[in-house]
Specification:
This protein is mostly helical. Helix content is 70%, strand content 0%.
């Protein structure tokens, strides 16, 4: 009998075992008709096998495409940031199939975030290329200049203290540096703070080419 917890469990088991697309489609339809939310959770759990079992993950993504809807958006928004790129990509594609304003708003914000990440990565590469020829003694003013350009007017007092202190003050300037960490954004600003911290701590060395 379809619709009981026992029958749903049998459907999930059969769906996970069969390799015949037509039979898997029928089982998926029956499972979805019996309990739509449990069907979504079941296929999502199989998607989480990810790169460790890509055939299962890809099958699960295909089943999720058939049943995904607005009620699943919140769960998928979290999965988009999964460390396994196969899982994350499938989750992103599933969100594109949710026909709501909220899904569109999330996608716009996500792609803008990706754009900023790409720009940050490009900036970091350019900064590293400029730092590699420099000696340790020349690193501090160049790093500080990049830090000032990135932070702008966000925390002027701390930047003033670092500018006045100079590398010769050493660890005494670290409190001013650490006060900037809560304001740091992206990947470039934390890198600049870490690099300056190493110099002030006397642990810096020339950046390898």
């Amino acid at each position: 009998r379809i619709g009981t917890p026992e029958s749903d469990e049998e459907l999930r088991l059969l769906s996970s075992l069969t390799h015949e697309p037509a039979k898997r489609d029928l089982l998926s339809e029956a499972l979805h008709a019996s309990d739509p939310e449990r069907a979504f959770e079941f296929h999502l759990s199989r998607l989480f096998q990810g790169s460790g079992n890509p055939s299962v993950a890809n099958q699960a993504a295909g089943e999720l495409r058939r049943i995904v809807g607005p009620s699943h958006l919140e769960s998928l928004q979290v999965v988009v940031y999964h460390e396994d790129l196969l899982i994350a990509r499938h989750a992103l594609k599933l969100i594109t199939r949710v026909p709501t304003w909220e899904a569109g708003q999330f996608l716009c914000a996500y792609f803008l975030e990706c754009h900023h990440d790409i720009l940050d990565d490009r900036s970091l590469r350019e900064i590293l290329a400029a730092l590699r020829p420099l000696s340790v003694s020349d690193l501090y003013p160049v790093l500080l200049r990049h830090l000032e350009e990135r932070f702008g007017d966000r925390v002027p007092s701390a930047l003033d203290r670092l500018r006045e202190a100079g590398p010769e003050v050493g660890a005494g300037a670290l409190p001013a540096l650490e006060s900037l960490r809560n304001w740091a954004r992206g990947t470039v600003e934390p890198f600049l703070l870490d690099a300056l911290s190493l110099i002030l701590d006397g642990k810096a060395s020339r950046i390898p080419s």
